[in-house]
């Protein structure tokens, strides 16, 4: 009988190509990952991971404590295993670190299961697309305005047909607009432009700047206000012609339901790590599709390209390559589309030399 025989964890710290500042503190120069490998008694291996900006050993401990829920069980029980892991962590949740830990195990089990079946993950999930649109996320708040044009040219050279820039860090509306103007001038009119305030504005300011952004053909405005200000986000969405994107901070389907009930956004941004992996993401996507709502994928492009490909209302993937150093051949972008791997599972092979180089003991 097929069983999950063993689950191991390793910690790695991967450098980022372009250091950035999130909300406070020093620039981020590296990211910590807990890499999970799940082994079956018949020789299959599934890979998953989760990342944190800080305090990585806490995440590893949580994963190591949770993996016993899966050991000895059939990989085809993956959805039931997910439910049991959620149940086992209810005293800490819902959401938070527990869901991040669950996601790493859940992704590894889905990768393992798809390898048992012998199909790419997106095929196992019923996906009919072998490529999905993606966009370049960059132009961080910490990037000087004088460097925005050069970064835009990089994105164009890499084949992206859409880019997203960070806002919310300037002291005045005029300076925010200057940054948008610089990026739009650099990419021209044939590349889509999204803006992400990272929850940095009030609803009043978001509406005011949104009126000014009409001149720059903005595809969506992301997280204009704090994620828990559902009324404020709804007011922004109702006031502007620019679609509002929100949802990346949701850990549960119930949180998404609250956002939808408030009319907090037009496009919902799903984060597979916060939602608890593939299983949690599929539950969230099913909920949104039942309400005829569009959604995108936040981070983790090598995993979420499979998920978006399986979803009718899935729009695009954020091509954040932070984890690509873990793998020998990450998915390629051609003409603005991620080409989905055709090997079984997620379709990626670990780069053991890189992992040894960046492993944290």
Can you walk through the features of this model?
The protein is 37% helix and 23% strand. The protein has 361 residues and is α/β, with parallel strands linked by helices. The model has no long low-confidence stretch (mean pLDDT 96). The strands form 2 sheets. Strands 4-5-6-7-8-9-10-11 form an 8-stranded parallel barrel, surrounded by 5 helices. Strands 3-2-1-14 form a 4-stranded antiparallel beta sheet. Helix 1 packs across helix 3, helix 3 crosses helix 10 and helix 7 (203-213) runs parallel beside helix 8. It is built from 12 helices and 14 strands.
Can you tell me the CATH topology of the largest domain?
A: TIM Barrel
Total beta-strand segments: 14
Q: Structural class, please?
A: alpha/beta
Percentage of residues assigned to helices: 25-40%
What is the general shape? globular
* CATH architecture classification of the largest domain: Alpha-Beta Barrel
Number of domains: 2
In percent terms, what proportion of residues is strand?
A: 15-25%
The strands making up the biggest β-sheet line up spatially as 4-5-6-7-8-9-10-11
In N-to-C order, the SSE pattern is: EEEHHHHEHEHEHEHEHEHEHEEEHE
Sequence stretches where pLDDT stays below 50 over 5 or more residues = none
CATH superfamily of the largest domain: Enolase-like C-terminal domain
CATH class of the largest domain reads Alpha Beta
